[in-house]
Write a structure and sequence with these properties.
By secondary structure, the protein is mainly β. The chain is built from no helices and 11 strands.
């Protein structure tokens, strides 16, 4: 059983920063690519960023324009999403996801991921 637990969401003013964390339990963490997705009300779930198991490859959605940074610490089975210069349009539920057997790839599609966390709400006020 693989479990992912996100934390770090909350309410922040536009221009502020937040750091999301996701801890995975139950498997060898470095075997999994990790991704952050988000879903706003009435919209489809979309990729924000992903990172390969080895940290050798990352992927970022075009709309981020360098505002977010994904990283991972395989010693503590945790992936992070550092978010800077947040905008009201970043308001969404953010989900952590894990893709099996991806030490070198950083997948960007929802269907490529095998396990999902419960999500954490990020709200950015104007």
């Amino acid at each position: 059983q693989v479990q992912l637990v996100e934390s770090g969401g909350g309410l922040v003013r536009a221009g502020g920063s937040l750091r999301l964390s996701c801890v995975i339990a139950g498997r060898t963490f470095s075997d999994y690519a990790m991704g952050w997705f988000r879903q706003a009300p009435g919209k489809e779930r979309e990729i924000v960023a992903s990172i390969s198991g080895s940290s050798s490859n990352t992927f970022y959605a075009d709309f981020l324009k360098g505002r977010f940074d994904i990283s991972r610490d395989n010693r503590v089975n945790t992936v992070y999403l550092q978010m800077h210069n947040l905008k009201p349009e970043d308001t969404a539920v953010y989900y952590c996801a894990a893709a099996r057997d991806r030490p070198w790839n950083s997948p960007s599609q929802v269907a490529e991921y095998d396990y999902w966390g419960q999500g954490t709400q990020v709200t950015v006020s104007s």
